[in-house]
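Can you make up a protein sequence with its backbone structure tokens?

===
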Amino acid sequence: MRTAIGVFAHVDAGKTTFCESLLFKTKSIKTLGRVDHSSTVMDHNELERRRGITIFSDIASFSSGGREYYLIDTPGHVDFSAEMERTLTILDGAILIVNATDGIQSHTTTVHRLLKSRNIPVFIFINKTDQAGADISACVSDIRAKLRIDTYLLCNAEGLGSAGFVEWLCEHDDELMQLYVENKVDEPSALAAAIRQVRTGNIAPAVQGSALKQNRRQRNVGHSWECHTRARTLERERLPVFRQGL
């Protein structure tokens, strides 16, 4: 059975480019298209290609880690919200794209509220980190303040098993905290706790990078816990009392 993942964003956050890159990386497509070249797989409608925005929700499939997935690209423009909302009934999870130069925008907040109301787990991708004016720490602050969720900034896939991630997760999951106190935390128990808490809608893991350039931006930080600590420290300097009010 395939898992259905919807991709959502405010217009121009790079959502369709993200979908294109994911399909290319998983070898689902042979050629990498671009929105500005009117050559993406998802925006195949002539009107979409002419205007350079997604108007109709579209679906593709890919395989990863021995599992099969449906990837659903949704419109990011508020005028086509009805088309976006039609996809919510079939989703198992969602990827919310945030523009690193703009942070959380109005439609991002609306989309997240809809996802949370339907108990759809959310993963965040902070996109366009290669552009001038990108501020990742400000984005983390924005996510927490405007979406009212806590987030952990991963620098690579292995970060899910890092000590920093586990300690952060313990702040939200009592069961994992008990295992941590008893020195009984292992990878399966940490992953189970992450799944539980993501499903509550109170937390959302995040990664950063450039979908167009197909890379993750690590800012010369070698370990995910160091990247997380740096982002959390900067975030607390900008928003010192928010976490106390959770």
Observations:
- Residues 3-156+203-221 form a domain with the Rossmann fold fold (CATH 3.40.50.300).
